[in-house]
Amino acid sequence: MVSFIEGFGKMLRLIPLLLLLAFVGCQSGEPVTISGAVHHAGSFDYRAGRKVADYIREAGGYTDEAVITDTYLVRVALDSIDEEKIKSVRVAVTDSSGVLPGDVIVVPGQVYAVRLDTVRTIQNVRLETKDEILKIDRGVIVPGWTPRGVVVAMLIGRGKVFEVSDTTT
Q1: What is the pLDDT of residues 63-74, one digit of tens each?
Q2: Tens of pLDDT, residues 110-141
Q3: Domains, the chain, ranges and CATH?
Q4: Which of 153, 165, 158 is nearest to 116 (CA)?
Q5: Is 0.70 topped by the overall pTM?
């Protein structure tokens, strides 16, 4: 029984050392990375006390395609038994979750299932947007729809894009 208590006492003295080792890998110079459905994904400087929402804001905010409720954080953690082993831990987050140096914030985007129909050939197609005109001499179109009934089409072909000059100014 005495050896158990002595061993337990030695283990308690090691806890501060283990905590120190766990944070050695998290240098304050390591960036926080944001990927996925944000306007400006990339690496951002770590600053103590910042939350997930702060980094999302710095990345330009969520896009319309973001699945905000599925946002998660990937954190690299040292294995407490074998310091040579490094493992990634996926953590569900909220906007108020804390962030550590080296963390990766992942914002998944909406995934759409589309059922495609028959491939059809096309010629002399002209698509106009507010800023440009796309002309496709020859190609194919594949119409389709989503399970919710949204009609979609995929155009494949070679064409030219022409910029539209703004004549209103």
Answers
A1: 988 999 889 888
A2: 887 888 888 899 898 888 888 888 888 888 98
A3: 2-107 (3.10.560.10), 115-163 (no CATH)
A4: 153
A5: no
